[in-house]
Design goal:
It is built from seven helices and no strands. By secondary structure, it is mainly α. The longest helix is centred in the middle third of the chain and has 30 residues.
Length: about 200
């Protein structure tokens, strides 16, 4: 028999193997197993990465309160408050940090104070965004320069998101020396509408 070495090997292992057709082939060979796991894995990976990115952007504004809560909770734990006490003190301090900052941004008339508070929240979020994007880029990017570029881009995007989420609800009000601000939603009555 004159055939390639691979066919000779198959011929020696399975001598009754015949070439050509004749028998019906199983049509469901490719309907399960590794063939369906590949698309399912791609879809689930895409959904997982998308949810992870959404979570990063949604939680970016909480980087500073988390850092404050962790620091104060660790200080309370080392001070003898116990595990439960440290958790409660840490969560209360983080929530208080976020609430005080949001109220200060909303109530403050000083533009510089608003910028300072928003910057205090945006900088830790940008640092966290840098490290998350750098870690994610190590999975698929080989070039160290592109890793740094992607990490810096992630820091800018996530820091900007934290800045925007903190300042979006603060309305800009004009400064009045007497402390009274007219309600701009009320129409101003003119002499023609008053006198009738």
């Amino acid at each position: 028999m004159d055939c390639t070495p691979q066919l000779r090997l198959v011929w020696k292992i399975h001598p009754k193997l015949r070439r050509g057709g004749g028998r019906r082939r199983n049509r469901y060979t490719f309907a399960h197993g590794a063939t369906t796991m590949l698309p399912l894995g791609l879809v689930l990976n895409t959904v997982g990465i998308g949810l992870f990115c959404w979570l990063i952007f949604a939680l970016a504004v909480y980087a500073l309160p988390f850092f404050v809560a962790l620091s104060i909770g660790m200080m309370a734990f080392h001070g003898g408050a116990g595990v439960v006490g440290a958790l409660l003190i840490g969560m209360a301090s983080g929530a208080l940090t976020l609430a005080v900052a949001q109220v200060a941004v909303a109530v403050s008339r000083s533009f510089i104070l608003r910028i300072a508070i928003a910057t205090a929240f945006a900088v830790p979020a940008a640092v966290a965004g840098y490290h998350v994007m750098f870690a994610m880029s190590q999975i698929g990017v080989l070039s160290p320069a592109w890793r740094e570029i992607l990490a810096c881009l992630g820091a800018v995007c996530i820091g900007g998101t934290a800045w925007t989420r903190l300042t979006v609800f603060a309305e800009i009000r004009p400064f009045e020396p007497a402390g009274v601000v007219d309600d701009p939603s009320q129409p101003v009555l003119t002499a023609a509408t008053r006198g009738g």
